[in-house]
Amino acid sequence: MFLKLPPKVVRILNVLQNHGYEAFAVGGCVRDTVLGRAPDDWDITTSAHPQEVKHLFVRTVDTGLAHGTVTVLLGEDSYEVTTYRIDGAYEDHRHPSQVQFSAELAEDLRRRDFTINAMAYNQEQGLVDLFGGMQDLQKKRICCVGDAHERFQEDALRILRAVRFSAQLGFSIESDTEEALRELAQSLSYVSEERIQSELVKLLLSAHPDYVLRLFDTGIASVILPEMEASEETARSLCRIPSEKPLRLALFLHALGEKKAERLLRLLKFDNHTIDTVRKLVRWRKEPITANPACVRRAAAKIGIHLFPMVLQMQEIDRDVSEIRAVWEEVVREGQCISLNSLAVSGNDLIALGMKPGQRIGKALNELLKEVLEKPEYNTREYLLESVKRKWLQ
Ligand code: ATP
Ligand code: MG
Description:
The protein is α+β, with helices and mostly antiparallel strands. Helices cover 49% and strands 11% of the residues. It has 21 helices and eleven strands. The chain starts with 6 loop residues before the first helix and ends with a helix. Adenosine-5'-triphosphate (ATP) is lined by residues 27-28, 40, 43, 112-113, 117-118, 155, 157-158.
């Protein structure tokens, strides 16, 4: 089988091989190339030890020397080059207590999680597929390398990765792998929240977000998503909303309500910006907005200019929002004011008029914004300054 490798990958493989080492592209990049998908990144596996790799390339980063990984920089691009390795005993269901370098490609492939992720390729030897990865790609299934039970016991994150890859690729999970995954779902409690977060997001953003249902019917959800219940309707809706993190998260968590959704996101260590955005989207999912300019402006002022279009995308799941969208587009096209920032006067203008700095200024500006949200044509300096004189400086 011939696979087209990027020229820089070929260059790295050649340098290593010309110095007497073995080197292959490995893992996700081989899987994706076979499937005709563009890989996110190219990983290289080699018999060379990290110090030897560092010696052969001008620009390198010590990414994880203890685990054998050196990042090679070529122009704008970077490639992880990792020494063949055998993972020692796993003690905490997540990390091998030690790793050992090896001279055998086969040993490096054996430590990998799934057959479709355990193939290597170079132009001299072609595809090295020792565990039936090609067959599983053809059969569209996720299958552990070796004994599934053992592999999930070693590293519980693989349980979640199995479901995530199945959702990204639209694959089934092979029966032994699935059985082991159900049996060991509880051990996901040993995995860090950050890793769970990252897998969950990849699953939700995948081409088959409805596969989240598998988290529930395998028992995974009870460990990583406490308090959540399976909903087929939500799963179906997820397929109908664009693959954007806040949208899919908000839709997924909507049934929990704003408070519990926030608590879950905090538990999974999401960043504040994501939490804040998702919380607002959950809150506004069902709020009525009428296709009337003043109502749209008021809603957009409360929600925020950037989030308003996302709220419409959320609401679109349940109803036709085309009229609201048309009104919104007009508001944007005309540059109508919907926030304090675009008000024709500022706090300093009010101070110049004779108002004392302090809370009243904020109140006055908000009152002006309210007027302008009703009637955009009021957003002129003259009108607003007059209004302030009339209402606030008497
Ligand atoms: P993607 O990057 O598209 O999510 P990937 O297959 O490249 O998918 P990575 O997490 O980047 O996944 O890992 C690269 C390779 O390392 C995998 O293909 C697999 O061979 C191996 N690997 C990664 N994580 C594990 C793990 N937890 N257990 C065993 N092997 C793993
Ligand atoms: Mg990868």
